[in-house]
């Protein structure tokens, strides 16, 4: 059987002008993961990443750490099917319908770095309404379209995979939630309940034989836990 390692990107720059940049913590998380994989002597046959900067940079840093520890590494392949859903677009589309019951929602969502717990509560509510289809057909990528995109990316990986390959896929939390939904049959609500627990640079492992895929492990975070540096365990 082969293995697909779903790796969430390192911590991005939440609250900054450009979210899609790894923070210093995100850089260290990525390096720690590469060093950990080297200690495990894990040979990666392929590496696929979405085209978002935070995904690409996480992949690059992990592979650099692997190579620096004497491991052969593959080139980074890019497939935008593994990009995150448009969180900003989801917020813009669903926010007007939220304001009647959550009058502070606009302020909280605009200032999430200063209101982290309230931001998460409101964002989870918005995402729930998005995957339930409670929004206008205004060009926003729907949950159904998002999962179809992710599934197409997974099938491309499987179609070109060799038997016994170890394949790293550098992606995002929402994409991992979609893959959990697709591979295990859990509901979107259940998948996103798990999504909120996924830490930056954690590994979730899928095993595959041909096109048959099964979840083997979820949200492994040993690479940062073993360092005993709590600041490296982040969720956003």
UniProtKB/TrEMBL annotation:
Q: Which GO terms describe its molecular function?
A: phosphatase activity
Q: Provide the Gene Ontology terms for cellular component.
A: cytoplasm
Instruction: Please give the Gene3D superfamilies that the UniProt record associates with this protein.
Output: Phosphoglycerate mutase-like
- Which PANTHER family does this one have? BROAD-SPECIFICITY PHOSPHATASE YOR283W-RELATED, HISTIDINE PHOSPHATASE FAMILY PROTEIN-RELATED
Species for this entry: Pseudomonas putida (strain W619)
**Name the record gives this protein:** Phosphoglycerate mutase
Q: Which InterPro entries match?
A: His_Pase_superF_clade-1, His_PPase_superfam, PGM_Phosphatase
CDD domains attached to this UniProt entry:
HP_PGM_like (cd07067)
